[in-house]
Structure prediction request, 381 residues.
Amino acid sequence: MKRIHFDTTDRNRWLKIISEAESTYRNCTDEQIFFNFDGINGIDKITPIHIVSLACLIESLVGRAAHVFIENRTNPVSRYLGEMLRFQEYWAGRQNFVQAQDSTIFNLWRIKDEEKELHSRRVYDYLKQNFFRHKDLSAVQNSLDEAYYNIFDHAQAANNAFSFIQFDEQTEKLHVAICDFGMGIARSVRTAFPAISNDALALAKAMEYRFTTGTQVHNMGMGLGNIKDTCTDDDILGIISNQGCLFAKRENIRTYENPFCFPGTLIYYGLSLSHFDDEEIIDNFTL
Amino acid sequence: MCSIKLQKIMAGKTYPEAGEVLYDMLQKKKDQDEVIILDLEGVASLPSMFLNVSIGKFIKDYGVDLLRQKVSFAKISATQAERIKDYINRVAVE
Prediction:
């Protein structure tokens, strides 16, 4: 029996635990692996980043035929995962999507190639019908489409990719996290351009307008830039991939090297929907 | 005047597939006198995977001036219009 202790919600420390567990349990056939959250006393700092990275780790371990359990059902994190997000239904029930027990959460979705347009539309319709009937939210769907396609065009993630979206009613901000345990954007860029010397620089390169690794004819190097451009002045786009980390706030881009190697790509961003314009339909628009 | 409903083109297709269909339609109609109106009713997302293989490819193959002469949009949101304008300006400078 093995146990993975999650004793912090600090983003980097959490991702380090995830990365190390993914690497440690490479051969875990029939192992019982218990996830323990007793070091975390509440769920207020559990964000979409935590959820999608955890889901990818579970998917990875289950894919290696391990038996994964969440320990101590009285711990708030364990309860949140089990009762609110219905985690067990994704693995025991092999569901790709189940509704969360909270109307502000667009629950975990196991990203499927054949459902990606459908899911982004589902998010758009849900926000439109429930919160922003008069806002133009086309950019929300657009950013999700770009992010989901990015996984299938570059990640080679072998079906281990998840999306989780949460809407904060007070701040009117949408928090999006998308994670895959695939090749990683940084590695993909460095494979195509070996002269790039580290993963942080590779992520900066991936953000450049018109930069593409050329994996698909429909790519012209605009996808990540489009996600960045959707973010308002109050929002940040973050990308963590392999040993690289990038934060973009409009045109201000900073990169760092991680003290761990993340086994894929995590993209997360916030969208301040209150800043979005009201919907105005133009009958005739000429270029 | 010829109107193309994008929602109809996109139904049941991936964005790149739908983009290729639109490109073929634009290509076939480019030598005709009529203006092509792209009707966006019911379409929210115009991601790069769609634009690159439709409008972007048309600009590459035939130039932005022909696109501006031949194509206009109907029932488009102000945000989408801004995005299309921005996209075309970026592709056109290549």
Q: What stands out?
A: The first strand of chain A starts at residue 2 and ends at 5. The interface with chain B takes residues 117, 120-121, 124, 136-139, 141-142, 145-146, 149, 209-210, 216-220, 222-223, 226, 276-277, 279-287 of chain A (CB under 8 Å). The CA atoms of residues 112 and 159 of chain A lie 7 Å apart.
